[in-house]
């Protein structure tokens, strides 16, 4: 219903640009994770341990300077939004979605706890994937398991593989549906 009420500019320009932006952000994050996997295989310094003796402003956290730092911020924000959307889209937690003007207090508390857990896991998630090396005030790099090569390697490979699989499935499904629609078949 919202798609039919949208203006032609939204339908013909806004939605395709938004989809291309989401595809680009997903592709960039998968590329960064793939480069991080190669870096893990070649250099032990790529492990997401804490940074010792590096104060803020003295060390660049991106090899591309300001552009790379801005890209890291955008990717971390994208990962945050996509993890929240994925969390509320899972069949187990769809009942936790708040309802306008009719949300009980227990559901509000459950939403607060869920969002707190997701936001607390985001710095470790982004460091483990190699999206950033910034240590976000919490010194998250001191977890013992962040020094285990096999856990980090499998985590990165799992993220890259599953994200690529979902991306290919979503894009190919949309392409197949559009092809069938243009051919006039249901």
From TrEMBL:
Tagged with keyword Metal-binding: no
One GO CC annotation: plasma membrane
Gene Ontology molecular function: transmembrane signaling receptor activity
Record's subcellular location: Cell membrane; Endoplasmic reticulum membrane
Major location category of this protein: membrane
Top-rank taxon, per record: Eukaryota
Bilayer topology annotation: Multi-pass membrane protein
GO biological process assignments: receptor-mediated endocytosis; Wnt signaling pathway
UniProt cross-references to Pfam families, sorted A to Z: LMBR1
UniProt xrefs under InterPro entries: LIMR, LMBR1-like_membr_prot
Keyword Cell inner membrane: no
Keywords: Cell membrane, Endocytosis, Endoplasmic reticulum, Membrane, Receptor, Transmembrane, Transmembrane helix, Wnt signaling pathway
Bilayer-crossing regions: 12-38, 58-88, 108-125, 145-168
Similarity comment: Belongs to the LIMR family.
The protein's name: LMBRL protein
Source species taxonomy: Eukaryota, Metazoa, Chordata, Craniata, Vertebrata
Gene behind the chain: Lmbr1l_0
């Amino acid at each position: 219903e919202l798609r039919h009420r949208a203006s032609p500019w939204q339908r013909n320009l806004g939605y395709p640009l938004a989809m291309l932006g989401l595809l680009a952000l997903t592709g960039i994050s998968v590329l960064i994770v793939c480069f991080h996997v190669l870096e893990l295989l070649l250099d032990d310094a790529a492990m997401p341990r804490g940074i010792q003796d590096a104060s803020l402003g003295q060390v660049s956290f991106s090899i591309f300077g300001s552009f790379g730092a801005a890209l890291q911020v955008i990717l971390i924000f994208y990962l945050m939004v996509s993890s929240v959307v994925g969390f509320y889209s899972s069949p187990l937690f769809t009942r936790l979605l708040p309802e306008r003007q009719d949300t009980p207090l227990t559901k509000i508390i459950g939403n607060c706890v869920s969002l707190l857990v997701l936001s607390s896991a985001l710095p470790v998630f982004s460091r483990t994937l190699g999206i950033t090396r910034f240590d976000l005030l919490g010194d998250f790099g001191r977890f013992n398991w962040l020094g285990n090569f096999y856990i980090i390697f499998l985590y990165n490979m799992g993220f890259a593989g599953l994200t690529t699989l979902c991306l290919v499935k979503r894009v190919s499904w949309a392409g197949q549906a559009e092809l069938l629609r243009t051919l006039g078949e249901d």
